[in-house]
Amino acid sequence: MSASVLYDTPGPKARVRNRILAVLGSVAIVALIAVSVVRLNEKGHLAPEMWDIFNYAGIRQNIADAVLATLKAFGLAAVGSLVLGVLLAVARLSDHAPIRVVATGFIEVFRSIPLLITIYAVWVGFLTDYSMWALALGLSIYNGCVQAEVLRAGVNAVPKGQREAAYALGMSKTQVMTTVLMPQAVRAMLPTIISQLVVTLKDTSLGFVILYPELLQTARLIASNTQVNGQYPYVSTIVVIGTIYIAMCLALSALATWIEKRGRRAKTGIAVSEAGVTTLAGASEAVQIPSQPGEAPADEPGITKN
After folding, report:
1. Residue range 200-243, pLDDT digits in tens
2. Helical H runs in the chain?
3. Which pLDDT does position 194 carry in this prediction?
4. 243-253: pLDDT as tens digits
């Protein structure tokens, strides 16, 4: 029986016990779902009429407009949070103490304040007539602080030898940050960055507090203003809107996976053309390196061996 740092590999008895617990847990979950479905059906929430409301052109148009509004707010918040995150990360890594202190204080303050309060404060205090911009700005501030910490961790994870080598080549600190450290930090922390963007997409649902017509606000209006068989279709509306949220988050995650795979397939380095001769890839003219110390390249006439 092998062991690891985190856990011991289960033996025969433990495997049997784990399988029994897995089966019992699955049965309990299925039973809970079945009871919920039966109770909802008894109350009429699963009646076909509750789902027929989504066949109306007006409701479909409202949902389509809500999806577009959600994506607009998310697009602005995503760009804003990434730009702010880069600026705050660079400021927190600055050699100047005042800049570093201000950036650290900004990050810690807005990471501690609940996002809902930030959005509401921005809306009431500055952008009362522009709910979309208030939502995007509030999301940008909070998620920018989180992205800044992610990028700072990525920069600190780059081996110090690369930074020292860049300084030894005469590069300035700005050049080192923009061409050596930050690209590697983004590539290393890309899964975490995309995960935070998924959180940003879901947090657009907080726009209902400032009456922004995103998906959640539209779902609330549809469910509260449409009556079917004397009941309001909250269950069917929640299921449909929740499915749309899941689809958008899965699409964003799939895009992140695709970008990450393309980054791994990037071809860099030195390509070997043939035995004994190395070709430096990317040069305007191939430079051939002889295999023997005293041997001249074959394409230079008039040069013989010593």
Report:
1. 999 998 988 888 888 888 888 888 888 787 788 888 888 899 99
2. 12-42, 48-52, 57-92, 97-112, 115-125, 131-157, 160-168, 173-176, 182-188, 190-203, 215-225, 234-264
3. 85
4. 999 999 888 88
Phi, psi of 274 (to 5 degrees): -160, 170
Q: Alpha-carbon distance 218 to 58, whole Å?
A: 12
- Confirm if 222 and 228 have CB atoms less than 8 A apart: no
Map tokens 């649902």 to a residue: 205
CB contact set of 220 (below 8 Å; sequence gap of 6+): 208
In tens, the pLDDT along 67-99 reads 999 999 999 999 999 999 999 998 988 888 899
Residue 153, amino acid: A
Interval 108-121 mean pLDDT: 91
Q: Is 210 exposed, middle or buried (0-12, 13-18, 19+ CB in 10 A)?
A: buried
Where is pLDDT greater, at 267 or 194?
194
Q: What are phi and psi of 215, to 5 degrees?
A: -60, -45
Predicted TM-score (pTM) of this structure: 0.72
Torsion sign (Cα): 178, 172, 154, 137? negative
Strand partners, 288: 279
Reported as type and span, the H/E element at residue 237 is: helix 234-264
Q: Exposed e or buried b for every residue in 24-61, given b needs 16+ CB within 10 A?
A: eeeeeeeeeeeeeeeeeeeeebbbeebbebeeeeebee
Question: Please, what is the Cα angle at 130 between 127 and 133, to 5 degrees?
Answer: 85
* Half-sphere exposure at residue 18, Cβ-oriented, CA atoms within 13 angstroms: 7
Nearest to 93 by CA among 26, 149, 37: 149
CA atoms within 13 A on the CB side of 179: 10
Tokens of 50: 């509750």
